[in-house]
Each structure stands twice: as C-alpha cells, then as structure tokens.
Write a structure and sequence with these properties.
By secondary structure, this protein is mainly alpha-helical. It has one domain (about 20-115). Helices cover about 85% and strands about 0% of the residues. It has helices at about 1-10, 20-25, 30-75, 80-85, 90-100, 105-115. It is rod-shaped. About 5% of the residues are buried. The mean pLDDT is about 80.
Length: about 120
C-alpha cells in the first residue's frame, strides 16, 4: 500500500515537490482522493487502450487470413469470391483452410463450409 501511495504522489506532483509534500498530501483527504481518482482514471485508460489494441490485432489477423484464402481460391478455382469470404465467421474461415485441399470445385467448398454452420 505504501508503494501505491508514493506512486500517487509521483503522478500528482512534479519531481521537485514529491518528497517534501508526501506527508502533506497524505494528511489532506481531499487532495489525496483527487490523486487516487487520477491514478484510477489513468489505469482505466491504459487498460482500455490495451483491450482495443488486442482487438485490432485480432481483426488484422482475421483480415490477413481472409486475403490469403482469397488468393488460394483464385489460384485453385480461378474465381473471385472475396464478398463471400467476408460473410464467414472465424470458425468457418478456419475450416476452409482444410477443406480447400479436398474440394475439387468452389461450389463443393461453399456447400461444405455452409453445411458446417
């Protein structure tokens, strides 16, 4: 708990005032609660950024998989079906990776993917 209180002082005050004002801030309840609120807000902001960053990374990976599968479908079946790929779920995208090796036609691939919903 002492470490978090010292950290609050570091967040709230510039470096030159940290040591001399620590006890004064600790005694002043209003000032102390303001410092606590600032630290909590910073933590919320930091964790929200981390969560949104992870979501963007996951979305980027899914988009890369879609583009890769789009290229495979174009090479194997000589057809462009990117709009169809965009409608699929993550699980269906994973299934296509295996099914593309066994299906001879695009219609067969599409039927097997949609049947496994």
């Amino acid at each position: 708990m002492l470490k978090s209180k010292k950290r609050l002082v570091k967040v709230f005050l510039p470096k030159g005032f940290q040591v001399s004002k620590y006890e004064e801030i600790q005694k002043n309840d209003e000032l102390w609660s303001t410092a606590m609120a600032m630290q909590l807000e910073e933590a919320r902001y930091r964790y929200d950024l981390e969560d949104s960053s992870e979501k963007r990374i996951a979305a980027g990976k899914m988009e890369e998989k879609r583009q890769f599968l789009h290229k495979l479908i174009e090479i194997k079946y000589h057809e462009d079906h990117m709009t169809w790929l965009c409608t699929l779920t993550a699980e269906q995208i994973e299934n296509i990776s295996n099914l593309i090796l066994t299906c001879d036609t695009f219609q067969e691939l599409k039927c097997q993917v949609e049947c496994k919903k």
